[in-house]
Amino acid sequence: MEVVGSLAPGGPFWIPLHGIVLLPVIAAALAFAFPRAWYQNILLGANGVLTLVAVLLFRQVRWGGSVVQSLAGWHIPVAITLRADQLSTPWVLLTAVFFTGAFLFSTRGTYRDKTFLFLFMVLEAAILGIFLSGDIFNIYVLMELGMLSIAILIMYKQEKQAVYDAMLYLMMNFIAMAFMLLGIGYLYRLTGVLDLQEIHLRLMDLDDPRAGLVPYALIMTAVALKSALLPLFGWLPRAHGAASAPAIVSAVLSGVQVKAGVYLLVRLGQVFQPLVEAELFFMVLGFLTSTAGFLLAIAQKDIKLILAYHTVSQVGLIVMGLNMGSQTAFWGGMYHMINHALFKGVLFLTAGIIIEEYGTRSYAEIRGVFRRMPALGIATIAGVLGITGAPFFNGSISKYFIHQGLQGSPAELGLYLINFGTILSFVKYSTILLGPPPATPPSPRDPYVATVSLLFGGACLAGGLFGSAAVELFFGPLIPAGGALAPEKIALFAATLVLALLTYRFLVCRMGEVLQAVRIFKFSFNQVTVFMTLFFAALLGYAYLVA
Amino acid sequence: MAFIESLTVADLAVALFFLGLYGAMTQRNIIKTIMSVGIMDVAAITFFMMVNHQSGARPPVSGAHPSEMADPLPQALMITAIVIGVSVVAMCLAMYMRVAYRYGTADWKILIRRLEK
Predict the structure, then answer these.
(1) Which of residues 149-178 of A touch B (CB under 8 A)?
(2) Which chain B residues are closer than 8 Å to A174 by Cβ?
(3) Pick from A175, A181, A530: CB nearest B48
(4) Is B113's Cβ below 8 Å from some Cβ in A?
(5) Residue A131 has pLDDT above 90, yes or no
(6) CA distance B89 to chain A (A)
(7) What pLDDT shows up at residue A111?
(8) Residues B51-101: tens digit of each pLDDT
(9) Backbone angle region of A476, left / alpha / beta, with phi > 0 → left and psi within -120 to 50 → alpha
(10) Exposure letters A384-417 (e unless 16+ CB within 10 A, then b)
(11) Does residue B13 sit within a domain?
(12) Mean pLDDT to the nearest integer, A123-142
């Protein structure tokens, strides 16, 4: 497949790209002297400015060609570069919009003291930097920075086992980053540069192409852990579903931060493109990840953990789409990343508020959300319809594109299986909406929460109604999506839904003991490290086979 | 002996990296796993330092001829990596202290069992 978003530099762009990365940190640091209420509004304003800049950058890159800037005026292969191209600007825009939404959402949040807000902004800067950086060592540093701030954010309220979750998260990611650092060392020894584009060119000229396989396996192991692929996803439910993580942290982690991992999987995969074609490897892995994700999601009782394991499942589907070797499926996977940010964002945001309102996280004890909190109920339904791929919602479009990539091959059955699993686990999740609400008086309505939830939910619907146009706007290629609304697709969705309802009622509800066993089972730190080593060995072996 | 003499520091760094990985895979004591992970990080840094190493090279400051200057980039980058490594290990240890006070154990397996109660 052609290298996407490669670098025909367009015109100059008057805003320095490093300004976009530094703006959140500088704003958060300078305004730290102000009282909390002001601080919050200043940061919201900074995010608004950032969104505006991201829109300008997106416009420039989409219609004017990619923007490449070198820091400190050195010439390109030597300098540290920042690049904004077709592949990265949609995510810059998404990150800025998402963080603005998160800030607006929790305008009245009680847990938001100044340190929390500061770390949240640092995380935003790290994510933006990963998307904009054209230098592999900068990517490494920003990943470490993001990792540290996430570790503090998820244990922020220090409830229950939060510190343990954060420690496990930090140590697993630290091992992955050590792999990456060693891989960068190998790359630098081979090529003598750190600029991604230059590495790509020099790798093609190697005397012995196989020398590039060890750094490939080292770096990809780290990136696969960041994007939560099959044996390495153990950290994700702990971080995203952490009991003490506030709603906006869970939403941002699931909506944007995992996407940074998947983005690196694509971007760094393209750097090694002529050397290693590991598409089959990652496609099979994506399928296995997706299946394992929904099986574990069905077993959970905690609504946040259902959503967290579901992120694993959806990331698997995205990785599958990206590695099918078909253009339609590739853009389907990219579009599904945006869609997943929207619907998982709305689901995590509403889940956080629902948990606060009901004082429990168990899906069996939460009833009647729809009647008690109608706005959140509607937003949740929009999110659920989006994620299950219901007709007219955004998930249906991206899943349709991914299906196109596998048309006619037996692997298409795998996609039907994943879809069935998604619907099944969300049948379980949706039970919280129905039933009689508890008798206690509801807490006062928060207009910011309702507005942001409904906006994100509305975006799920808009992304479905204008699917083809949205893909063209964000990525460029025009792919007709009319087939997603064909009668047989709608009939298939309805049939899967009925089958899932029946399976839930007559099978899942009666397997309590099996589910209990799955739920209790957890891997210890040592086992996770063994998995990482095995993953590295498998990827290296596979790379030697195909190279 | 010829084998041992042919080993470079970079080879030893790779060996050290996998030694650290082995420790992280096998040790049940949390402190020892944190040490193992720290060793992996240091090994990766050592490996990076040895890239483009040439004996007899001079520090890249004024006065030296460019052809005999050492490559300054690995050193500049590894300062950053060392700082990051130190802060992450420090944070791991701080978190470990919280966990150890709360659950009274330094063993990953016993810790998991106590968490479930």
Answers:
(1) 151, 155, 161, 163-164, 166-167, 170-171, 174-175, 177-178
(2) 37, 41, 88, 92
(3) A181
(4) no
(5) yes
(6) 9
(7) 65
(8) 888 777 887 777 777 777 888 888 889 999 999 999 999 999 999 998 898
(9) left
(10) bbbbbbbbbbbbbbbbbbbbbbbeeeeeeebbee
(11) yes
(12) 93
Q: Quick check: A184 contacting B, CB < 8 Å?
A: yes
**Domain assignment present for B62:** no
Chain B: nearest CA to A500, how far in angstroms? 31
> Which residues 52-91 on chain B approach chain A with CB closer than 8 angstroms?
52, 73-74, 77, 80-81, 84, 87-88, 91
Q: Is A80 on the interface with B (CB under 8 A)?
A: no
Which pLDDT does position A452 carry in this prediction?
85
Domains: count for chain B: 1
CATH number at residue B34: 1.10.287.3510
The ipTM value here is 0.94
pLDDT of residue A316: 92
For residue range A293-350, list pLDDT tens digits in order.
988 888 888 888 889 998 999 999 999 989 888 888 888 899 999 999 998 999 998 8
Looking at CA atoms only, how far is residue A524 from chain B in angstroms?
Answer: 7
Give the closest-approach CA distance of B26 to chain A in angstroms: 6
Residue B60: inside a domain: no
Q: What is the mean pLDDT of chain B?
A: 88
Q: Which residues are registered as beta bridge partners of B24?
A: none
Structural domain of residue B111, as residue ranges?
2-53+68-116
- The answer to whether residue B58 is domain-embedded is no
CA gap A6, A68 in Å, rounded: 11
Residue A68 main-chain phi, psi, to 5 deg: -125, 125
Containing A310, the helix (H) or strand (E) segment is: helix A303-322
SS3 (DSSP) at A175: helix
